TrEMBL record:
Residues 1-24 form the signal peptide. The keyword Transmembrane helix applies. This is Sporulation protein. The chain crosses the membrane at residues 43-66, 73-92, 116-138, 145-163, 192-213, 245-264, 276-295, 320-340. It comes from the Bacteria. Keywords: Membrane, Signal, Transmembrane, Transmembrane helix.
Length: 350
């Protein structure tokens, strides 16, 4: 049944590409610009550094120095400390790459790697402070506040996940010797480049179909749908319709289906998709609640920029086709199919 539904969704999306070729091209171009201007400069160095620290064994040395507080808070081995820090500073997919590298190196069990991934899906300072705060909301102070709330909510989720495991005495899995620094350097560059390419592909794909969807939806409806699907366009759309700040905080914590696909693809350990989505919703909810409670106290009021279309090149008149969201529903169905399929592949690996 799922395959038939996904097939029908693929046909609808193919039809959308044929009916709106100019919009599809503009969306793909906007996605490529986002990748080259935002994702690659801000994420690739962190992806490389995270994998290199773990593959070279340096994370174990760092964890021995600073890992005890992390072990007590999250019930994870000290070697996970660098991956947790990189997951907080590097951007959404960095934490998952760290969890994957720690599992492959034998530093974490499959269960520990899954828990690390569940609370390490965080936006980085470059994205939240610069792109969202200054670029979309017109206020660096608001961006800093959103970053603090976002990271705090992720830490709360991590602490809650670790509560049942503080008495676990799981021995470390690692038995093999660490590779040389040169080999670790090459491996880190290869892994980071592969992950970066996959991320960019998803961003371009979502940007393409969200641009087509703009022909059918506008205003708040488009902002809500964009927030569910893609975090960058979601935050920008919410800023354009002057949505409350807690809505932006909710989208940042949720992360968007595009980020979810980036995070869950290519993992060697099992991640239960239901638990993953529950943690994403919990982090978004905690962040939104904290924004509601603390935003007024800290007098956080974004200086919103002039309202513009999400895709500036499409600021022309739209056809009178309001009401149909078939292409958008098809995109969500395909995402669900890919996530469930990746979960099944992970079950076969573990």
């Amino acid at each position: 049944m799922l395959k038939k539904t996904a097939g029908a969704a693929a046909v609808l999306l193919a039809a959308a590409l044929l009916l709106f070729p100019r919009q599809a091209a503009d969306g793909a171009s906007a996605g490529i610009s986002t990748c080259l201007g935002v994702l690659v400069p801000s994420l690739f160095p962190f992806l490389f550094l995270t994998v290199f620290l773990i593959k070279s064994g340096l994370s174990s040395a760092i964890g021995a120095c600073i890992g005890k507080p992390f072990a007590k808070l999250f019930a994870l081995p000290p070697a996970a400390a660098p991956a947790i820090l990189m997951g907080m500073l590097g951007g959404y997919p960095t934490g998952s790459r760290g969890a994957q590298a720690l599992y492959e190196s034998g530093e974490l069990t499959a269960e520990q790697a899954e828990r690390l991934l569940l609370f390490s899906v965080n936006g980085g300072p470059a994205f939240i402070c610069t792109a969202v705060g200054l670029g979309f909301l017109g206020s660096v102070q608001t961006g800093r506040f959103l970053l603090a709330v976002h990271l705090l909510s992720g830490l709360v989720v991590g602490v809650l996940l670790g509560l049942p495991h503080h008495r676990d005495k799981t021995p470390p899995r690692r038995t093999a010797a660490w590779p040389s620094l040169g080999s670790s350097l090459v491996t880190a560059a290869h892994d980071a480049a592969s992950s970066m390419l996959l991320m960019c592909c998803f961003v371009i794909l979502f940007s393409t179909f969200l641009c087509i969807l703009q022909q059918f939806l506008s205003g708040k409806a488009l902002a809500v749908f964009a927030g569910v699907c893609e975090v960058t366009l979601g935050c920008r759309s919410l800023a354009n319709v002057l949505a409350p700040l807690w809505c932006v905080s909710l989208v940042l914590g949720w992360g968007g289906l595009c980020v979810h696909l980036q995070v869950l693809q290519g993992l060697a350990f099992r991640v239960r998709t239901g638990r993953f989505f529950l943690c994403r919703a919990a982090q978004g909810g905690i962040a939104a609640l904290a924004t509601l409670l603390l935003g007024e106290r800290f007098s956080v009021k974004p200086a919103l920029p002039p309202v513009v279309d999400v895709f500036g090149s499409l600021a022309q008149s739209r056809p009178a086709l309001s009401g149909s969201i078939a292409a958008g529903v098809a995109l969500i169905i395909l995402c669900a199919a890919m996530l469930l399929d990746s979960s099944g592949q992970q079950n076969s690996v573990v």
